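INFO batch 0412 | record 1 of 1 | parsing
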Amino acid sequence: MCARPTPGSSKTPARWTTGEVFEKFRETHHGWLYPYSLFWALKQHLGGKLWLEWPAEYRSFHAALSRPLPPAVLEELAMQEFCQFLFYNPMATPAALRRRQGH
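INFO prediction complete | emitting tokens
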């Protein structure tokens, strides 16, 4: 599991998920990354319930895509995508990036 930022921290998903390498990763892996991240974001949003217990509008991937998602789900979705990026690219962690920049 990827560590979540603490409230008020400067490490929000919007800050973490910028950059050309991350965007290329999202484009390359979109076929599995978006559905996977959406599933986990919805699961988190719905209190960890089994997907069979989710409201009908979220139980199907296509149904979930047909409606606007709450901001909390979108934020969690970004977090999930970024966590997968880190698992695929261990040299892209914030600490590794700082080391390469000489900080």
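INFO post-check: The chain has one domain: 15-100.
INFO record closed
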